[in-house]
Amino acid sequence: MLLFFALFALWRRRRAQIAIAAAALVWACGAGWFATPLLDLAQRGYDHTVAPAFGHETTIVLMGGGTDRSGTGLVPKHDSMQRIAATAALYRQCRDTGATCKVILSGGDPQRHGQAEADNYAPYVIAQGVDARDLTRESGSYNTYQNARNVAAILGPVHDNRLIVVTSAYHMRRSLRAFEAFGYAPQPYVSDVRRNDATVFPHFRSFENSELAAHELVGLARFEVYRWLHLY
């Protein structure tokens, strides 16, 4: 939109065409014609949940997804609640096999809400059956790359134990690439999949999905460029 505003201000002879193009883009985002293919691309390959295989020693990593303010205080975002539920369910299944199961909550405070995501999520996973003795909080990361880096520092150089990464479908590809950068090959466990349908009238959900999918795709492209430049 900043580009459209700049063009509108500088290219006076084409203002009508620029305004029409900007309006069409806004409508396409809100009506889902832009959001749907972007979301499908971001979630490609991870649009369903696959049951993981537990090892003798299994570590489940929950990737932070933000917090929201509410009347009761700071709470996990909707997607984060689904990640919490999926992580707790996996932990219970893992314990049922007799394996040694650990959970790492990974997430700092990138939104500057005053509390790290890991600290905010901890009571929720404990309430859903995760033993506090099996829980580790990684509360210093501000992005996906730092999530993987800080978790790798906790796990150390031993890579032969089972590692499962729990996050939303749209975030999974970037999460796995981040862990691969540190020599890990985690199993993906999709906590939730976003759906979006093309409509005639704009909806807030489609605007949200457009921004979310674009953010993930740009983030993935940036990650690949940084890897190519040896910055990661």
Please give a handful of descriptors for the protein shown:
232 residues; alpha/beta; Rossmann fold; five-stranded parallel sheet; two-stranded antiparallel ribbon; 8 helices; 7 strands
What does this structure look like?
The protein has 232 residues and is an alpha/beta fold. It has two domains: 74 residues, no CATH class; 134 residues, HUPs (Rossmann fold). It has eight helices and seven strands. Strands 5-4-1-6-7 form a five-stranded parallel sheet, with helices on both faces. Strands 2-3 form a two-stranded antiparallel sheet. Helix 7 links the parallel strand 6 and strand 7. The longest helix is centred in the last third of the chain and has 25 residues. The radius of gyration is 20 Å and the shape is globular. The mean pLDDT is 87.
Task: Indicate the CATH class of the largest domain.
Answer: Alpha Beta
CA radius of gyration is 20 Å
Measured distance between first and last alpha carbons: 30 Å
Morphology call: globular
| CATH level-four homologous superfamily name of the largest domain | HUPs
Q: Helical amount among residues, as a percent range?
A: 40-55%
Quick one: how many beta strands?
A: 7
- Domain unit count: 2
Within the CATH hierarchy, at the fold level, what is the topology of the largest domain? Answer: Rossmann fold
The appropriate CATH architecture of the largest domain is 3-Layer(aba) Sandwich
Helix segment tally = 8
- Biggest pleated-sheet summary: 5 strands, parallel
Cross-sheet strand order for the largest sheet: 5-4-1-6-7
Mean pLDDT score, rounded?
87
Low-pLDDT runs: none
Element order: H for helix, E for strand: HHHEEEHEHEHEHEH
Class from helix and strand fractions: alpha/beta
Beta-strand portion reads: 15-25%
